[in-house]
User: What shape does this take?
Amino acid sequence: MEHTNDAHKVKPFTDDEYAQYQKAFSVPHRRPIRVGPKGYVLRADWPTHSEDVRTMPLRPDDIFVVSFPRSGTTWTQELVWLIENDMNFEKAKSIPLTDRYPFLEDFIYASATRMAARNDPAKLKMLEEILKPAPERLAATPSPRFIKSHLPLSLLPEGTLDTARVVYVARDPRDVAVSFYHFLKSFPHNGLTASFKEYYDLFINDLEMWSPIFEHVKEAWQQRHHPNMLFLFYEELSKDLGAVARRVADFLGKQYTDEQYASLLDHLKFDNFQKNTAVDITDLKKFGLLDSKGQNFIRKGKTGAWRDNFDEEMIQRTEQWMADNMRDTDLLFPQN
Ligand code: A3P
Assistant: This one.
């Protein structure tokens, strides 16, 4: 596990961290790990392919969509894909988003998904295919490649920002926490039994996967003026998707008519998006990993809805948490 590069050094959760994490679940979870000086939390499977990710050959026309989970990744992926692909709505509806965008670090779910499908050889066989590490699958993917990742910039393949284009989307961490909780709840095999308030403790103590969220966002924020970086907020998409779509088009060097933009907004509108079977996580439903409704992937689509989930004590703790984390940055989450 030892790595010469500090950004990739791995250490397991301490006993205390692991106990606090495990307390939220009724089924045993493997001890997560922390990576690099910021201590990004990842699943224990990370080191099996982290070198393949770090050294993955890049192409100048690669397009990455990067985010902390539950920040509007899927929405942004579809927006970016359509703008790069001449607004080909028919193609977008006919090929699942997961096929159009390999998930760079999907292998970190290998153990968890194998566990969940352990009694079903047919499912396991399909999983092996799906969970072939993305760096391997990407080598055979024609250009331009679209790549989804929840890794912070420092863990992306070396040289990503200098070679490829990156669209990063950030969201108010309070809404992310609520969304993440409901998302985890919809996977019964996770055995999440914590109440939201209990889960929130874990979240703001940076014990959730891909945490610490502020460091994740700040790394990208620092690069927002890099010519290969487009930094977006979920709240901006929510407030004025048309304006964001035009920024994405400028970034990708594309031009469209007002009619095309109108069709794009219609396609991406929450109600239509929620019904679009090409952008939900069909594979996971097929494996029975999601609950029978499976509705928590594209769930509510609101900004500021955290207020309905926080009591006074949580609000106060959060103010402190946010103040502590925002002290050394000019980053501000837009309030709609
Ligand atoms: P909520 O759980 O708050 O509803 P990700 O794709 O990164 O996992 O992010 C998921 C979040 O984005 C969910 O938030 C989901 O509802 C929201 N989302 C997805 N598509 C959306 C859309 N078209 N409009 C608004 N929000 C959307």
